Amino acid sequence: MRSSIALAGAAIAALSSALACATSTKQFTTSGGVSYTYEYSPATDYNGTSKPTFLFFHGFPSTRRDWAPQLAALEKAGFGVLAPDLLGFGESDKPDPNNLSAYRWSVVSDHMAELLDAEGLGQVIGVGHDWGATAMARAYNYHPDRFSKLVFMSVGYVHPTGFIDIDAINAQTLAATGLAQCGYWYFFNHFTATDLISNHLESFYSAVYAANSTTQNRDVGHIGAARARLEANRTIPLAPWDTEAHKQDWLSQFSKPGAVAPSLNPYRRALTGTDVPDDNAVPEVNKLLNVPVTIIGGSLDTITPGAVMRVVTEPFAMRGLEEYQLQGGHWLGWENADEVNAILSKAGGDIAR
């Protein structure tokens, strides 16, 4: 029988091979000395005209590898693709996680602009999932000239007001459904969260990459649910859309020393107001989305319901909004890969014309 280590190595190699077919893995160091690892494949040149390039922003608890189905499909269709591990994730740098200021959206936004410059890219189509949707939105707020279109997946536009009222969200959802939708935010801000997640990675993986998204608000989202699940070390089988290669690669990345703590920083910055001064300084015109906007939501997503996306995004979409609600959960890029790839291809084709 092959050892679990050998199986993990084979699974990681399989996922790495799938990524390599579509892209090249590269490294980039910013002017401030921060290193990013990213996947890149340039757009195909047709008679002197290139198709647009997509810049992907992953969410939590993800890495660039969660975009593997999209990178392969779009590269094959001739589009350019660029997918970094964001700061604090995967193989990119992880500054001191207690220095929340080092992870500010304005800092990461400037890094992304430098990365585009390094690859000789002017404008790109931004695609953001989960917290990556907010990272993409802030990159647009700070550098609107670098984006020709924005695609929000699972999470809509978070206007840079500097304040997210999680208490109000939890009170409203608790009254409406009996479950506090964002109760897990409190756990992620607790001093025990890093160790508890690190010591129960398989349980955490099966909680977030769950087969049944319709119960995630009960199993993970509600106050105390995530902690109880990890303390019991509960695991469930892989979702039918997931792969063992993806799981083992994820475990390999998040089992590295110091990997979990910085990944929680988006939640911690949101509740400590770290980004508020930067958000307040964004020019009002840049807070409006003056490019075409697409939203892709999951009708079965109970952590970040797809139905909410239009409500928070449409008031700021000055150039129109195209909406897709897919029959899926939170991980649409995997669960609904073909549909997502078709939507992105259409978005790229609209820009190319």
TrEMBL record:
Species the sequence originates in: Microdochium trichocladiopsis
One matching Pfam family is: Abhydrolase_1
* Domain of life the protein comes from: Eukaryota
What protein name applies here? Alpha/Beta hydrolase protein
Keyword field contains Signal: yes
- Name the lineage: Eukaryota, Fungi, Dikarya, Ascomycota, Pezizomycotina
Q: SUPFAM superfamilies from the entry?
A: alpha/beta-Hydrolases (SSF53474)
Give one GO term, molecular function aspect: hydrolase activity
Q: Where is the signal peptide?
A: 1-22
Span of domain AB hydrolase-1? 52-336
The protein's UniProt keywords, in alphabetical order, are:
Hydrolase, Signal
Family membership, please give it: Belongs to the AB hydrolase superfamily. Epoxide hydrolase family.
Which PANTHER family does its entry note?
A: EPOXIDE HYDROLASE (PTHR43329)
